[in-house]
Amino acid sequence: MEKTVLLVRHAQSANNALPECERVPDPALTPLGRMQAEQLAQGLTQFSVAELFCSPFKRSLDTALPASQLLGIRPSIRCDIYEQGGCYSGFEPGKLQGEPGMGRAELLASYPGWAVDDAIGPDGWNAGRDYESCEAVKLRASGVVRWLSRFWIPTGRRAAAALIIHADFKRLLLAELLQSDQWPDCMQPIWNTGISLLRFDGKSWRLCDWNSATHLPTDLRTPVSADVSAA
């Protein structure tokens, strides 16, 4: 039985619409981003989604919210699928400072009924961490691949798991899943709420669809360039 996983980039955040010097550690969605999230929820109905996972960044959580309501799914907040670099302030190389992000109580209050990763404590999901190194994020991506390869979706052959994640971590995760640094159009801008569909046969992953935005009207499509700062 094949396993289907959807890797979904979050909707447009305030940082996506701002220059680097004006960005904040944990931005909310823009009004356009909220419309994208609503369209994504409708688009996910075609995939028989049974599991919904998101990172603890607000832009990922708020992208998942309409889908959780429409599909009747209790999302799981995982602290290992956040964007490359982690939660941080600053924009100049060498001057990036780790920030704590939302803590357990704030997440539970803001997203009642959601499953919060046991690793997230009261001081913030990123508390005590510096800006994440390239070596560290690759190790994290490898860990997520091991988890994806072994977790089970119990509701049937057509069921899928959707991960609401981030542009640069999505690229790293795909490289680990496909065991390659190359895949078609890998350096194209990733659409906000762009969906990439993968299937796992128990031995290897294959990419069936990359960066699809067919659920979005043309005027709601916003790309992001292939760099860490914009993701």
Reconstruct the topology from this structure:
Blueprint: E1 3-9, H1 31-44, E2 49-54, H2 58-71, E3 76-77, E4 88-89, E5 97-98, H3 104-110, E6 115-116, H4 134-150, E7 160-165, H5 167-177, E8 195-200, E9 205-212
Parallel strand pairs: 1-7, 2-3, 2-7, 3-6
Antiparallel strand pairs: 1-8, 4-5, 8-9
Helix pairs in contact: 1-2, 4-5
Q: Would you mind describing this structure in some detail?
A:
The structure is a single chain. The protein has helices at 31-44, 58-71, 104-110, 134-150, 167-177, and strands spanning 3-9, 49-54, 76-77, 88-89, 97-98, 115-116, 160-165, 195-200, 205-212. With 231 residues, the protein is of the alpha/beta class. It has a 7-stranded mixed beta sheet with strand order 6-3-2-7-1-8-9. Strands 4-5 form a two-stranded antiparallel sheet. The protein is globular.
Structural class: alpha/beta
The count of helical stretches stands at 5
Please identify the oligomeric state.
single chain
Order of helices and strands: EHEHEEEHEHEHEE
Cα(first) to Cα(last) distance is 34 Å
Shape: globular
- Low-pLDDT runs of 5+ residues are 225-231
Q: What would you report as the Rg, rounded to the nearest angstrom?
A: 16 Å
Q: Describe the sheet with the most strands.
A: 7 strands, mixed
